[in-house]
Design a protein that fits this description.
Blueprint lengths: L8 E6 L5 H9 L7 E8 L5 H8 L3 E4 L6 H14 L4 E4 L8 H6 L4 E5 L11 H8 L3 E8 L9 E8 L6 H24 L12
Parallel strand pairs: 1-2, 1-4, 2-3, 4-5
Antiparallel strand pairs: 5-6, 6-7
The chain binds 5-O-phosphono-beta-D-ribofuranosylamine.
């Protein structure tokens, strides 16, 4: 399967938490949008706000607890992805690492959003890492997922200033507003075939 398709791409979103990026994708791709439609939400946490947001929009939502068994999780996810004929997966606050086999199978069709200007500050607590490092600018990155953590090729980056009196919360909130623009933009670039593995668009 190669982008562009001759129809809207069918998206799955994987989320472990509140799901504000899920909501931004749902809003950006309403029914009959020519680029994409959000068809499936998968969460590894039963309590995730993302599950109720998906249900509120009549999007099929599944809680698949990861437990210690990544293989089982990925087997169950694979069945869902096939059943829903998913073209593109968007990780959005999904707090588990997928296997190298899974990321290889979905190479070019698996995206993540991270709250820093990668390659700076990968991993957990990216906003606090930026504050601790004393940088004057941070932001967010949507990138293709490879077998590493936050290491795949960037697709879209959006920048924000880091202000002198910022806390982790104020900086995270400023970055989150940009995330909500960046993710739909990255999805459009990928599904329209305008960005593939080795291209990069800077903001
Ligand atoms: C976002 O900051 C995203 O960059 C990070 O996890 C957070 C998820 O937020 N990977 P939400 O659940 O989409 O509101």
């Amino acid at each position: 399967m190669m982008f562009p398709l001759e129809r809207p791409a069918r998206l799955a979103v994987f989320a472990s938490g509140r799901g504000s990026n899920l909501s931004s994708l749902i809003a950006a791709f309403p029914p009959a949008d020519p680029f994409a439609s959000v068809e499936l939400l998968v969460s590894n946490k039963r309590s995730a706000g993302a599950l109720s947001s998906a249900e509120a929009h009549n999007i099929s939502a599944y809680a698949l607890p990861f437990g210690g068994d990544r293989e089982r999780f990925e087997r169950e996810v694979d069945a869902l992805l096939r059943a829903f004929r998913i073209d593109l997966i968007c990780l959005a606050g999904f707090m588990r690492v997928l296997s190298p086999e899974f990321t290889a199978r979905w190479a070019g069709r698996l995206l993540n959003i991270h709250p820093s200007l990668l390659p700076a500050f990968p991993g957990l607590h990216a906003q606090q890492q930026a504050l601790s490092a004393g940088v004057r600018e941070s932001g967010c990155t949507v990138h293709f997922v490879d077998a590493g953590v936050d290491t795949g090729k960037p697709i879209v980056q959006r920048r924000v200033p880091v202000l002198p009196d910022d806390t982790e919360e104020t900086l995270a909130a400023r970055i989150l507003l940009e995330e909500h623009q960046a993710y739909p933009e990255a999805v459009r670039l990928v599904v329209s075939g305008r960005v593939k593995a080795h291209e990069r668009i800077m903001r």
